[in-house]
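User: Hi! I'm working on a homework problem where we have to compare a predicted structure to a textbook description. Could you give me the structure for the chain below?
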Amino acid sequence: MSRTHRRSLSRSLSVLALLALTAGAVTACSDSDSTAKDSPSSSAGSSTSPGTARAGEAKLHLVDNDGHRLAFYVTQGKGPTIVLDAGGGEDSSQWHDLIPKIQEATGATVVTYDRAGMGKSDVVPGAWSVESAVSDLKAGLDELGVTENVTLVSHSQAGEVATYFAKENPKMLSGVVLVDASLPPLYTDEEITRLAAAAQPQVDAAKKDPDKPQNRQLISTAESYVPMHKAYHKVSWPNSVPATVIVSEKTPFDGSPEDVQRWKDAARTFAADGPNRTLVTAANSSHDIPKDRPDLILKEIETRVTTQR
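Assistant: Happy to help. Predicted structure tokens:
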């Protein structure tokens, strides 16, 4: 796939708050297995115990949940656990370059995973369900024995997973870093209607090649988009869970000033709507902050982990 095509697909996914496949991603979207091969865990075999992995070496764990299998990768450390959740259309390899820097800076255990239908994880047919995604993440962490002192780092669409996960499991989380995340205040009825209508041509195009992982995810998200985001708009973040909100300067809607402002306003509203929330702007960054400003993400992770200790 050409870079031009990838940029076009990125914009369509962004419109549907999948917010994935940002410019510069290196994965060929025609081959989901190739993305998993780029993962830091690609050379590791399956394991059932996270304690068997040496520090600095990622280990693949295959976890069963609700009839499908999910790939989790553990880079073993000490103390707290940092869980990295990739944006829509991305798998765990999005964090490939950042993991060793996190390990060096914090010494913590780092967990990444492939959401259903991406990387080495099984496809789940039908409309995308954030509840299912939350169940998958919880099942994986339970299997790994991770039950507390978790810093969750969530990019883009993973912000929706993080919001529901935090609501259901606040005691597991010592803090969250939301990286240009999809947040509830954005999704007014007016904005949902605007975004769904704008995305429809890209959804129709994706249906012509539905087996590509990113197309499949776009289609499945579109199926549940309106009711899911009407419900999401009403979800509250638990006050007991501290959150750092990183918003990009350009946002996923670069080129649409109205939507850029609405995205930034949603981040500001969310950050101001409860205690222990901090808003940080990623200057000179596109939506793909993991690529453009990994230094900033690392800094905010370090701050969260240091605060926990």
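For your comparison, note the following. The chain has a mean pLDDT of 85. Residues 213-232 form the longest helix (20 residues). Good luck with the assignment!
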